[in-house]
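Extended Data, panel c. Modelled sequence:
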Amino acid sequence: MDTDQLEAFVAVAQTGTFTAAARRCGIAQPSLSVKVRKLEQHLGVELFDRIGRGAALTKAGELMLPKAQRILDDVHGLQESLKEDAAHGHGRVSIGAIPTIAPFLLPSVVERTKAKYRECCIHLCEEFTDALIDLLADNRLDVAVVGLPIEHPHITVEPIGKEAFVLAVPEGGDLAEGERITLAQLRSRPMIAMSDANCLGRQAAAYCAARDLKGDVICEATQLVMALELVARDVGIAIVPRLAALAGHVEGVVYRSLPGKDAVRGIGVACRSGRSKSVVIDAFVEYAAAAVREYGRAPLD
């Protein structure tokens, strides 16, 4: 038994003929007759007496009609409720981001998303890229903000902008002054590096290797705050994302532009391929892209 069969039964009961009922349902009369016959077979009773070209409800049909109407009303009410819930962002949304983006981008973007869809329940997850991709692939996360590139057979990535890398140096040091930093000034400088588990660590290492920057690595940090606190204490210098420079103020740290126009990374939002997106996710992606653009235009000083 399905709702199409119930719709056909109610239409015949209300119009009095299979022909009129078929016109109301927008299907051929033989198809409607088959639906009613299958419903009768499923219930094990005759619902209509076929009299000439008309159809009269049997006693079983009379008992069935109000029940069928209540079922259809419930189904239609459920459909409308689900549409309304979806339109208002009801339900739970899981959002992830890598540690070098999460603390600087998520708070303001989630705040804007919640302001638009107050009924949504947003769960946040800060993890390294590989862990986020696994969560997305296992359908345990709806969307994640990641550094690009990302290559995975079951993950779809939408680029939302680019972010420059900048150099974090101690305030008052020789690198904090001057018009422009040169590669010669950076060679042999002690470095505070990010761990290889962090995509920023791998990207910064590639930047240094391409320019023969071989300063001693004093520390491999997993969190940016650790790296920046060490920079503030003049332990070393660090390559950090521009988002951190603009949103994550640390006393005693100055940020300078790095030599080379290729000191950038792409930022994107990743989802499980084939998964539908809710209005909440669409809004989150829109606000995240806008925030990346705003940070990209903001001056460092």
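The mean pLDDT is 91. This feature is highlighted in the accompanying rendering.
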